[in-house]
Amino acid sequence: MKIKEVEPIVLSGKEGGSATWASVAILVRVVTANGEVGYGEAVPTARPLQVVSAVKQVARSYVGREVEEVERNSWEWHRQDFYLARSFESTTAASAVDIASWDVLGKELGAPVHKLLGGPFRRKVRNYANGWYPDCVTPEDFASKAKEVVRMGYTALKFDPFGEYYDYLDERGLRQAVERVRAVREAVGDDVEILVEHHGRFNPNSAVMAARALEPFNPLFMEEPVHPENVEGMRKYRASTTVRVALGERILSLTEALDYLSQGLVDFLQIDLTNVGGVTQAVKVSHLAEAFGVEMAYHNAFGPVQNAVTLQLDAVVPNFLVQESFYDWFPQWKRDLIYDSTPVREGHSTVPDSPGIGVKVNEKLVEDLRVEPREVEFTEEPKWVVKGTWRGW
Ligand SMILES: O=C(O)[C@H](O)[C@@H](O)[C@H](O)[C@H](O)CO
Ligand SMILES: [Mg+2]
């Protein structure tokens, strides 16, 4: 069926999210000529205005094409755009339209996306908690919140112990990180997995020092230890450490993923369906990773549509490890945005089985929460950190 309309929709609720950018969501609605509707989601970051206008541009390429031809449509945008694999705005816009197309496709065929991709390898998906530590500053803060997370049933949790440090980690910064990680390890015991988020903010020397200091606490992985564009730095980190590495939330294409995989720079790949090219490209990257013996831990930090479609991929990929989840720390409006909720129970989600991405969007709430996109204000605390943690003690 032909695509009639592609519409970007920016949403915001009064209640903020665990990070500044989590208080906004960008949905993309695809409508076909016979009135079938599908939803995708794009990444807001600090550029909602630019992403919205990128969606409008991508729409020019998709409208009038057959919604089922996801591969061809994605190829066509690549051909038109010229800068696709180097533009975050372009890839996130194209990703959202691709996800919405898969949603329509599933609805047309009466099947959830995971059935179209090879069928369920698993029906329950293990999650790790993120977003659970707003306002945690001291080791005691982290320890008591971490205990709550484990009480909720999670067996893995991620956090950033580096406070306000950026680029360079001095002795004090290193000591503070060690004390926070030690406090969490002691609070959760040896059986819970600890994932150390660096948010890609260190130079290689500092990241290597952090790896040496934190390795005794047996982290499952170190996430984005160096600035993401610093591939040489990542090589140095690999040569100087024995910790396991996760990265990938800023990878924009299959070939970029191949670079990291073929150089042996990553153990767990964290591509994000909403910026790597949607379902169509994420499937390819996941199979490529399988061939390299790398497991998938998809990045999933934005909203309920991203969460639903990511669960669809978790269901089918043999080399899946664990799913990031903010679900329990979403602002309530994000959970309410979909009718069929995807709750986390005992640290696991059940893969939604309804056609398409498996959930239905509450269109009335979409209209209530719709806002005009705006530029994002800059504050001392960057918008990508969990709120209230950009401090030392
Ligand atoms: O791995 C992640 O989830 C990402 O690095 C980010 O998206 C941040 O953690 C998030 O912004 C914090 O709220
Ligand atoms: Mg991250």
UniProtKB/TrEMBL annotation:
Annotated coiled-coil segments of the chain: none
Ranges where the Mandelate racemase/muconate lactonizing enzyme C-terminal domain occurs: 139-244
Gene3D superfamilies cross-referenced by the UniProt entry: Enolase-like C-terminal domain, Enolase-like, N-terminal domain
Protein name: gluconate dehydratase
Keywords tagged on the record: Lyase, Magnesium, Metal-binding
Family assignment from sequence similarity: Belongs to the mandelate racemase/muconate lactonizing enzyme family. GaD subfamily.
Source organism per UniProt: Sulfodiicoccus acidiphilus
GO molecular function: gluconate dehydratase activity; metal ion binding
Catalysed reaction equations from the record: D-gluconate = 2-dehydro-3-deoxy-D-gluconate + H2O
Pfam families registered for this protein in UniProt: MR_MLE_C (PF13378), MR_MLE_N (PF02746)
